[in-house]
């Protein structure tokens, strides 16, 4: 039997990409909403409650409103927004973190898709804490380079306007008050006792990101080198098709650069370990619209419906 799917917010950046990835699958019946009714609560409610699984690709407030519309006890929700990521009763949609995470997604009714910056950060910090390498009170600093599609339709329009401000030509730091909306999930999911110092940087290209976590080795719980951390991450993510831990020195194939758009258009993630015995840089490279949003949401959908985790995705 086909899984009935509704995408609430299917005309937004994340919704369109999910639609594109699901459109020609023969295991899915896509329920569509008339364009003029796409913000009509009654029609959205009818479609949400007719679906087996609804993807919410909406601003936080509309995502909360959509969850309140669910009356069918069998309807399962995958929410791409920030609204429910740290809420009790919601599974965090990053299955590679542990067997427990994957199982919670497989059986869950409410799945919160990770934030894009948070996905990169957590892919690096969660294993280090779980493995006893990083003290939970380590003062983590992180910066994250992202394409402008991370800001949704509004930011895409700003960057693609013919009369745009010249400031948009250069990479721009933001989140300067240290209140970025992903900080909460970064701390809670990893178990860090203090929020990281986090600096996102948006730049003049469509999609893709690099999230960095620098480490002083003398502040770690155990002696580590780039070699030992590469082996640790390779083992942690062994057999995970979406997360590829790169061999040491892999960046030399890109002339020593890690480019923000390296995995643009793809749904997987690459982890690079660089630096030296004293200072190590961990970098997570992926597409904010792929493993950072739609790709991760469809990966969760595949786990929930019991099909191949990579089905319909571009690795
Ligand atoms: N872009 C990214 O890289 C990522 C985005 N996310 C999150 O996913 C969610 C969607 O983001 P994104 O696709 O970028 O955002 P967009 O702004 O591109 O799209 C949001 C869509 O939701 C629609 N919408 C707004 N309010 C309602 C409502 N009440 N009922 C129905 N539809 C509504 C908008 O309509 P209209 O077209 O009229 O504006 C728009 O089409 C957000 O919570 C975002 O933070 C998560 C990870 C990464
Ligand atoms: C460039 C840009 O503005 N990016 C967004 C991240 C998009 C995202 O991950 O949003 P959610 O938290 O809703 O998932 C930001 O930093 O707020």
From TrEMBL:
Spell out the protein name for this chain: N-acetyl-gamma-glutamyl-phosphate reductase
> Per its record, what are the GO molecular function terms?
N-acetyl-gamma-glutamyl-phosphate reductase activity; NAD binding
GO-annotated cellular components? cytoplasm
Q: Which GO terms describe its biological process?
A: L-arginine biosynthetic process
Protein role: Catalyzes the NADPH-dependent reduction of N-acetyl-5-glutamyl phosphate to yield N-acetyl-L-glutamate 5-semialdehyde.
Write one Pfam family the protein is assigned to: Semialdhyde_dhC_1
Which SMART domains is this protein grouped with? Semialdhyde_dh (SM00859)
